[in-house]
Amino acid sequence: MATRLINHRAPLLLAVIAAAALLTACGGDKGDKASQTAAKVNKEEITVHQINFVLQRQPGLKAEQAEQASRQVLERLIDQELAVQKAQEQKVDRDPRVVQQIEAAKREIIARAYAERVGEGVAKPSAEDVAKYYNDKPALFKDRRIYSLQEVQIEAKPEQYEAIRAKLAAAKNLNEFAEYLKSADLRFTGNQAVRAAEQLPLASLDAISRMKDGDSMISPNPAGLTVLYLVGSRSQPVDEARARPAIEAFLLNQRKAEAIQKDLKALREGSKIEYVGKFAQPAPAAASAAPALPAASEAAAPATPAAPAASGLDAASISKGMGLK
């Protein structure tokens, strides 16, 4: 059961709150309590507050859709309540796995609320901050390009790297290089994609932006080598006015993350933490993985990529799942 705190204040809430106010206009404690009840399922009540909470989590819902949406939400809440009642009757809520999920969701909600409170004290970026970021990242904005890329993941041993690099440098195109890999009986996989600058790992963007059409770059990965080939590109710059909202959001989120990490660091320093069992032993060293060609992003906004760990997880993903991001 994934539970999240979402702090949306969409315009539709005005319509929802107004509708709720009309329901509570009859006065008196009894009347107020009754007016907040949207339905009764056996002995349990479903309230207007529950409906409003679900509506708050629906981005893009228009004010004129609120009434119909609230009825639709109510039907789903009735189904949910019936399922909960049956589960309690069967003592499903006492299953250790369910209890563990409930506790994990509770901890995530509390930790996320803490993180949001810490972030509330962060100052918004100034116009000068936005301008500096814009000018410091030409590959993202003034010199922004759309890249057509091909990526080849090669399984190889360290002693084969030099020969592979030499063949890549000598090859006239990627097809010729692929033929060499086949003839050398080297296993490889390939994929291709069209990516805007902001959809590429920020740590790699400067290097990719210096590439010309037909250029390639090679880097190590846990299984061997990764070749990135620039098939072609086209210029599509973004001016500062258009980029400002995305930069402001990015810088603000970055500052919030830094504030949370600073606070957590202080908490760690002021607490007694003892690792037990196998976790008391130093973690084994692992080779760092090269970033793979990323999936397309829906939003054109700058982002800082998280370096993947040997475990397949990165710190940002773990923190997000625990309410700390």
Brief descriptors of the model:
325 residues; alpha+beta; four-stranded antiparallel sheet; two-stranded antiparallel ribbon; 11 helices; disordered N terminus
Please give the structural blueprint.
Elements: H1 12-23, H2 29-35, E1 37-41, E2 44-47, H3 48-56, H4 66-89, H5 96-120, H6 127-136, E3 145-155, H7 161-170, H8 174-183, E4 188-196, H9 202-209, E5 216-221, E6 224-235, H10 240-269, H11 315-321
Antiparallel strand pairs: 1-2, 3-4, 3-6, 5-6
Could you give a quick summary of the protein structure above?
It is built from 11 helices and 6 strands.
Task: Characterise the protein shown here.
- With 325 residues, the chain is of the alpha+beta class.
- The protein has a domain at 1-94.
- Helices cover 47% and strands 14% of the residues.
- The protein is built from eleven helices and six strands.
- The strands form two sheets. Strands 4-3-6-5 form a four-stranded antiparallel sheet, covered by helices on one side. Strands 1-2 form a two-stranded antiparallel ribbon.
